[in-house]
Amino acid sequence: MAHAGVKLPHEGFSVNRLGHLVLDGYDLVELAEKFGTPLYVVSEGRLRENYRRLADAFKAHYPGETIIAYAVKANFTLAIIRVFALEGAWAETFTGPELHMALMAGVKPERILLTGASRLENDFREALEVRVGLIVADSLPELYRISRAAVELGAEAKVLIRVNPALEVPTHPSIATGVRGTKFGVDVPSGDAFKAFEEALGLDGVRVLGVHTHIGSRIMRVEPFIEAASCIVDFAGELNSRLGFKPEYLDLGGGFGIPYKPEEYSEALNLNLLAEKISEAIIEGFKKNGLRLPKLIFEPGRSLVGDAELLLAKVRNVKETPSGKYVFLDASTNHLTPVLLVDQYFEIVLANKADRAAEETVSFAGSLCFTADVIALNRRAPKVEPGDLAAVLSVGAYCKSSCMVHNAQPKPPTVMLSSRGAEMVQRGETLDDLVARDLIPPGLYHASSEQS
Ligand SMILES: Cc1ncc(COP(=O)(O)O)c(C=O)c1O
Questions:
Q1: Cα gap 4→387, rounded to integer Å
Q2: Stretch 230-241: mean pLDDT, rounded?
Q3: CA distance 218 to 149
Q4: What is the percentage of the chain residues whose pLDDT exceeds 90?
Q5: What is the reported pLDDT for 303?
Q6: What one-character-per-residue DSSP string does 19-79 give?
Q7: Domains of the chain by range and CATH?
Q8: Cα of 227 to ligand 1 centre, how many Å?
């Protein structure tokens, strides 16, 4: 979508006659005045649209059941998890706390999938006690622990085993998981994955139901997903022919990328093509191997929440330097940690000047005490002045959920927009929250200092 001053990522956005950026009919300048800044703003409508687009694509192409398990790690604001639960989503949770957040948001335990990288018996006991739908084992030691926990509880664990297809995955190396040598899953090419299934099939308390993989995040092309699906289909064929194991579930993880730069808005991942090609690979492969179609699971995070949330931040100060103009915001990179972790680009629009053409080049900085605290370098913008309102777009994935505390800056609140109104769904952190876990031992408190 293009407006006089800016290109916008989706139909929920517009610019009103005051030149203000509007989301789902809400003037963002008014929202900032009402709730203060920095402020995360999430669109319930966009969350639902993102879910439905993916679900509908698979409904149209895959004759079996497709389960969409929202990857809670992307953004665990309870109201967001709740919206997806109401849409019919499962939840993919990576840790005990994520699991409990999904339960608190009303996800039924049987619709929770517990993945993870290194769990102890206790973690599995807890998952079995709340009766999660599926547990994804990452390694043989984990399988033994699941078995022990299940036997001890007299339960049966429904298990998928995470495999690593060891492919080339076109994304930032820190978030490529399905490549050779990462810490995740059991390796397919070396035969380790086969051995894990062989062993797991004989474990007490463990009912192996399928294969899991997740090749990485922020992947913008269809091909890597097709390649992964084909690899898993071949592997399923091998499990059937050599072990007589017939997978009921194929879980292909998440990883669907979203456009962050305006020039990418027209090149979003084609979900319809993705669903068509993945379905084709599975239908053909399973037919060839004489297997019944499995239930498909996807675990999208970013593609469901990424472009549904933005961060509003006020311009505190502008400063000319010999190497350019810095615009200091009241939000910082600790609220947008992917900038620091994976060099993430976030588009920034001046929400109170959204109808104005760009006339200068500026860098947007946060107010923290380290040099890398720069949110965006050398961006074109209308003339920026203190008091302007910046909207950092598409921050829904992995920003709030990996928000760090730095310089004791509290975490901002979140407001959700819907036909019910603009509702606070997470309050901002306070000084009391920041010190809530601290204790000064009485002996230290009452000790006299040399200065007193
Ligand atoms: C096991 C697993 N599933 C799903 C996801 C979600 O990925 P994305 O947000 O890219 O869809 C992740 C992300 O790290 C993951 O580790």
A1: 22
A2: 95
A3: 35
A4: 88
A5: 97
A6: S-EEETTEEHHHHHHHH-SSEEEEEHHHHHHHHHHHHHHHHHH-SS-EEEEEEGGG---HH
A7: 13-43+307-435 (2.40.37.10), 44-305 (3.20.20.10)
A8: 17
Q: What is the mean pLDDT of residues 372-384?
A: 96
C-alpha–C-alpha distance, residues 434 and 340, integer Å:
22
Confidence tier at 217 by pLDDT (50, 70, 90): confident
The residue whose CB lies within 8 Å of the most ligand 1 atoms, and thus the one to mutate among 68, 214, 398, is 214
Between the CA of 29 and the centroid of ligand 1 the distance, in Å, is 33
How many whole angstroms from 301 Cα to the centroid of ligand 1? 6
> Rounded to whole angstroms, what are the CA distances from 320 to 94, 327, 384?
45, 9, 12
Cα–Cα distance list, 389 to 20, 236, 374 (Å)? 10, 53, 17
- Does 231 qualify as catalytic in the annotation? no
pTM over 0.90: yes
pLDDT per residue as tens digits for the range 262-311? 999 988 999 999 999 999 999 999 999 999 999 999 999 999 999 999 99
C-alpha torsion sign, points 275, 79, 329, 352: positive
What's the rounded Cα separation, in Å, for the pair 256 and 269? 7
**Beta-bridge partner residues of 295:** 249
Task: Report the chain's mean pLDDT, rounded to a whole number.
Answer: 95
113 pLDDT above the threshold of 60: yes
Q: Is the distance from the beta carbon of residue 162 to the nearest atom of ligand 1 less than 6 Å?
A: no
Atom of ligand 1 nearest to the CA of 303: 11
Closest to 337 (Cα-Cα) out of 115, 215, 175, 170: 175
